[in-house]
Write a structure and sequence with these properties.
alpha/beta; three-stranded parallel β-sheet; 3 strands; 13% strand
Amino acid sequence: MRRPAPSPTSSTRSTYRVIGDFHYNGHLLLTKYPPCARALAKYRINPGNVGAKRRDDNFRTIGSGAVNEGKPSRIGVNWVALTSSS
């Protein structure tokens, strides 16, 4: 199945705001599909779910992307992430 081309104006034609809730591969959206990243109203990042091997790099990429695009961001964790020994 082919992915549709990103539309940087899709959020301006809608009354709904789309929030990016990044898990595991949000850094790829920001680097490979910048128009999609720009169309999001804000970003939500769970630092425990941004990848295993390159977690810090991936988290840094998402954070930098938010700053560069001027997007408000929420860094959130869930109860499992707080109680996990990993």
